[in-house]
Amino acid sequence: MVDDIRAEEIADKVYNLYNGYTSGKEQQTAYNTLMEISPPMLYRVQHHYNSHYEKFGDFVWRSEDELGPSSAVADSTLRGVGAAEGSRNTSFDRRAQERMRVALPHCVKAMKAHLILRRVERISRYCGALLRSAYIQSRTDTVPYIFCRREDMLPSSSVWHSSLQDMQVSCTEKLMSVPRNTYGDSKLR
């Protein structure tokens, strides 16, 4: 079940968080939101983000550019630290450690982005095609079902050996609400 209106709201929230001044706390809130929603909902958030803004994966790299080095800089920093381990120059080691301290949070952000995007990759092609529909409408259908129970209660210690014909059963028809989505290329009524 996908709430299309909420998916669009989340896409807008993520865009606004990552395209203005944002604190680490706000970015963590956006990350938590994206990790808490179901993969189909995340896929729909990605659809709205891509249709209104840029590519979905860009929001993480944008935030890294605002706060510090990109993954390429972090990667070269990590290689520099590895080279520094072999040298005995302590001032170089301190500089390498400082670069590592600065680059590490950005590497963590890249890993978080990877975790989010991997959840979207797990969706089947069929579900992905449905979730890319122009319009998704949520609705609740009422489905009848029959609930039956035995009228003559047996003690819990007794073994059940009787047949269905020997039992007194009462059945009642009940209704159950089932949420579902309707998918289409044009607005549904």
TrEMBL record:
Coiled coil: none annotated. Residues 1-72 form the Annexin-like domain. Residues 136-182 form the Astrotactin-2 C-terminal beta-hairpin domain. Pfam families: Annexin_2, ASTN_2_hairpin. One of its GO terms (cellular component) is endosome. GO terms for biological process: neuron cell-cell adhesion; neuron migration. It comes from the Eukaryota. This is Uncharacterized protein.
